[in-house]
Design goal:
By secondary structure, the protein is an all-alpha fold. It contains 4 helices and no strands.
Length: about 120
C-alpha cells in the first residue's frame, strides 16, 4: 500500500470512528450527560461537532492534495480534550474522564499516524 493510500485510509477510519462516537453521543442524550458529568445542554453540540469533524476527515481523505490541517485539527482536539479533563472546568465523573481521555487518545493516535504518513508521502515526491 502506498503512503498516500495509507494516509487516506487512516483519515477514513478516523472519520468513520469519529462519526460513530458522534452518533452514540447524540443517541445517549441526557442519560449519557448524567453518566459522564457533562451538562445536558452540551451533548448535542458535542455530538454535532464530532459529526462535523468526521465529515471534514472524510472530505480531506478524498482530496487530491491532502491538507496538513487534518493533522493539526486532530492534534488540537486531543490537547483540548486533555485540557478540559485536567482543568476541572466540567464536573466529569470517572466514566466522563475515561471518555474524554479515550477520545484524546483516539485523535492523538490518528494525528501522529497522519503526520508520519504525510511527511513520508511528501518525502517520496
Amino acid at each position: 500500500m502506498s503512503r498516500q493510500r495509507a494516509l487516506r485510509v487512516s483519515l477514513r477510519v478516523d472519520g468513520v470512528g469519529t462519526a460513530i462516537f458522534g452518533v452514540l453521543v447524540l443517541a445517549g442524550g441526557q442519560r449519557l450527560a448524567d453518566v459522564i458529568g457533562v451538562p445536558g445542554s452540551w451533548i448535542v453540540p458535542i455530538g454535532v461537532g464530532m459529526l462535523g469533524g468526521a465529515v471534514l476527515l472524510l472530505v480531506f481523505s478524498g482530496r487530491p492534495a491532502l491538507p496538513r490541517v487534518a493533522v493539526a485539527v486532530n492534534a488540537g482536539s486531543g490537547v483540548a480534550m486533555v485540557g478540559v479533563t485536567a482543568s476541572g472546568v466540567l464536573p466529569l465523573t470517572g466514566p466522563g474522564i475515561a471518555f474524554m481521555l479515550a477520545g484524546a487518545a483516539w485523535v492523538a493516535t490518528f494525528a501522529i499516524l497522519a503526520g508520519v504518513l504525510l511527511r513520508q508521502a511528501e518525502g517520496d515526491r
